[in-house]
Amino acid sequence: MFRVSVIVFSLICLPAASAQNGKQGKREPSRPPAIVWSNPQPESVKELPPGFSHQTFRSQLAGQEIGYCVYLPEEYAANPDKKYPVIYNLHGNGGNEWTGLQSAEVLHEGIQSGRWPAVIMVMPNGGHSTFYMDSADGKLPIESIFLKEFIPYIDATFRTIASREGRCIEGFSMGGRGSTRLAIKHPELFCSLFCQAGNVPNLIEGLEQGDTTQFPISYMGTDRKVYEENDVYFLIQKNRSRLKGKLRIQIACGTKDGGHLPTIRNFHQALLEAGLDHTYLEIEGLGHNRTQMINLYRLIWFDYHIESLRLNGSLPR
What we know:
The chain is an alpha/beta fold. The protein has helices at 101-113, 142-157, 174-185, 203-209, 217-220, 224-230, 232-238, 240-243, 261-274, 290-296, 303-311, and strands at residues 4-10, 52-59, 64-71, 86-90, 120-123, 167-172, 192-196, 248-254, 278-284. Helix 7 (232-238) packs parallel to helix 9 (261-274).
């Protein structure tokens, strides 16, 4: 039976919100697509949760070391024969591999309190304004690095459940946009998606109506096939049979997030029309603010992923 959960939450007197934690988010990037391949620990971060570390891996596609952060639950070291599910957390525009620290802290608290079972969280580095896509000029092969090198590296380096049944993907803003596109494009890789205020634009329409000198056409090039291969709305129709009953989808966005809510609603409508189960949350009074969104639902933030992993047999029910 087709089921969709639509939930609207009300908030009272929230302050003005921002892209990661500041001013209202925009659809277009605030800076040209670029990446600092490995980033030092921010000065503002004084303490890391147990099991959280910054590491690097060698990328052949980039020709250098790329930074990432990983959270391993405390029981990981004591259970050398046990494999764990993985949540891939993709950062927003202007962030880097350290941006998911708050999510890792919330996950750690929940595991320690017994709310959630032990899982791994991995935070890759996606650069600025790349939207986790490959650039047409080949200089920023971000999607290829993530799919062809990084996920296999994580599966080879850590004791993961190295299949769709054991992988979740999520992200806020650019990370929500990237995780949504990657999950809809590659449903064989993930069992659960959480799009947190991530734009879901119609790329094909943008190509047909846009200026080729402007982003994202200047980044993606002008080959229509590339746009079809990355347009979520096109992919929903193309991959409908592979998505139905396989990828669980949760979407959340604030009603004051004017830069992102319109395409989030379009995405919700497209899923309804395709008959694809999903959970849709509009948060009354919330702008584009990652920290506020997480803190509002801190105690249930990972419930959806955990349920997805249980339904797929990667965690006991």
